[in-house]
Amino acid sequence: MAKANLKVKEAQGRANLNVVTTNPIKTVAYNDINLKEWKNYPEVKTDTFWQFPTRLRTGGHSNEYHGNYIPQIAQQLYERYTKKHDIVLDMFFGSGTSGIEAINEGRRCIGVELKQDLVDHVSEKFTPKQLVTDVNIICADSASEEAKEKIQARLEVMGEEKAQLLILHPPYDDIIKFSDKKEDLSNCSSTEEFYDLFEKVAKNGYDLLEKGRFAALIIGDSYKNSQVQPLGFKCMERMQNLGFILKSIIVKDIQGNERAKGKTANLWRYRALAGGFSIFQHEYIFIFQKVK
C-alpha angle 25/26/27, rounded to 5°? Predict the structure, then answer.
């Protein structure tokens, strides 16, 4: 009887072992998505046209700061290109969207912001503990060697040599003036200078990003001197020159994120009809990978 029970247990053990080995979780190196259950992730976008009806204003997010990108972009990037506890490096931290969503999604974040008053204000959105363990905010010029050294030091404190995701959301040339500082990309004397300074920031990000991981450039174009300035594609080229390979070009509808309606919208329509141009209703999200 005892031998019979033993054989039954052995058979059950073999059956359980077979379950484990024949149906493992299958993931890639840069996210936690179980490819064995790929149909269970309907919220993850894999197309090249993104629409979000309104800006997310829950989970610690608000619309108090002009020029910040919407939290839904961070949600998509984090689930697709990071694992839990990975470090996101945001070289234009602004009002802290990347950091807030890192907390919400179980990631960590290092953000670089040029203005000390904004650093102080955004720091109040996090607890003292979070500012030590999960979100590090550095006040520095993102294009500088000083910023690179400070980021490297924060990475070491957080137990990593490199970051696992790079986010670049620069000013769209001089459309919005963010400060009076000469280091501010929105104060460049020409669009060509804007490209040069952006490339320096992107180079720091490239050097601090882990091999095989991804970078996202969020940017729109501008009008200047009666013609379109293709900021997105020019910055894309600068990143490719640094060694990034291009994985996706996503067009994001910005209509649901506009503040100005009514008379302002009508004024721009008049200007478009009079000037022969079209009104921007999109921006770009370029996805790159560091392969060397």
Answer: 120
CA 274, 220, 193: angle at the middle one, nearest 5? 95
Q: Which neighbouring-strand residues pair with 219?
A: 284
Residues near 243 by Cβ (< 8 Å), separated by ≥ 6?
206, 290, 291, 292
Nearest to 111 by CA among 229, 227, 208: 208
Distance CA 83, CA 214 (A): 12
N-term to C-term CA, the chain:
63
Sign of CA pseudo-dihedral 132, 133, 137, 138? positive
This prediction has a pTM of: 0.88
CB hemisphere CA count around 218 (13 angstroms) = 24
Distance CA 223, CA 278 (A): 10
Q: Give the Cα-Cα-Cα angle 48, 55, 171 (nearest 5 degrees).
A: 75
| Separation CA 257–CA 267 (nearest Å) | 18
Please state the φ and ψ torsions of residue 116, each to the nearest 5 degrees: -65, -40
Q: Which amino acid is at 172?
A: Y
Average pLDDT per run of 10 along the chain, which is 292 residues long?
47 45 82 96 97 75 71 97 98 95 97 96 95 96 98 97 98 90 93 97 98 98 92 98 98 71 70 91 97 94
